[in-house]
């Protein structure tokens, strides 16, 4: 029985020493301090969000403003502002190369920035619509001139006539095509082919025909009486 009572007493937690009490006190104070910091941070975020909601509302109601640029702010503040802008139906972007210089710009939906405008902000430049229009026109003129130059070079490298027709007598074409060209030339200039002019009769046949024509002519002159040989 004594052994059982002794084991129970030994298993029970011993009273804290002075050192343990101090450690627990510091732990409680630290937990309380962290809780106060969290609550303060939460209130700070809520106040900042309320402030941004009011500024965004004023921006929307201002018909003269198309965009609004904020001063550089931290990552948490930028996140809150982006969320407020999205809920309000605005377009928002963050610009700036390093974290310390990052800032937010708000745009109304009907005045959403173009890609050229966004690129200007990303380069840290001010957006000038007139300068951008001049650059756009210069690019268009350069593209037109380049296209015209390319077309001129292409036309110079390609002959106006077909080399097959121009040098058909060298590279050869069909006999029918050659004959058609020859016939067309003959019709145009009233020429008769040499083959049509060639007399295929023999000399004796030609002389006999000449004598027969002379005889007929002489008979006509004498009234049809035959002449003595």
Automatic annotation (TrEMBL):
<feature type="region of interest" description="Disordered">
    <location>
        <begin position="1"/>
        <end position="31"/>
    </location>
</feature>
<feature type="compositionally biased region" description="Low complexity">
    <location>
        <begin position="141"/>
        <end position="157"/>
    </location>
</feature>
<dbReference type="Pfam" id="PF01424">
    <property type="entry name" value="R3H"/>
</dbReference>
<feature type="compositionally biased region" description="Basic and acidic residues">
    <location>
        <begin position="209"/>
        <end position="221"/>
    </location>
</feature>
<feature type="compositionally biased region" description="Basic and acidic residues">
    <location>
        <begin position="21"/>
        <end position="31"/>
    </location>
</feature>
<dbReference type="InterPro" id="IPR001374">
    <property type="entry name" value="R3H_dom"/>
</dbReference>
<dbReference type="InterPro" id="IPR034068">
    <property type="entry name" value="R3H_sperm-antigen"/>
</dbReference>
<feature type="region of interest" description="Disordered">
    <location>
        <begin position="134"/>
        <end position="165"/>
    </location>
</feature>
<dbReference type="InterPro" id="IPR036867">
    <property type="entry name" value="R3H_dom_sf"/>
</dbReference>
<dbReference type="InterPro" id="IPR017330">
    <property type="entry name" value="SPAG7"/>
</dbReference>
<feature type="region of interest" description="Disordered">
    <location>
        <begin position="209"/>
        <end position="229"/>
    </location>
</feature>
<feature type="domain" description="R3H">
    <location>
        <begin position="46"/>
        <end position="109"/>
    </location>
</feature>
<dbReference type="GO" id="GO:0003676">
    <property type="term" value="F:nucleic acid binding"/>
</dbReference>
<protein>
    <recommendedName>
        <fullName>Sperm-associated antigen 7 homolog</fullName>
    </recommendedName>
</protein>
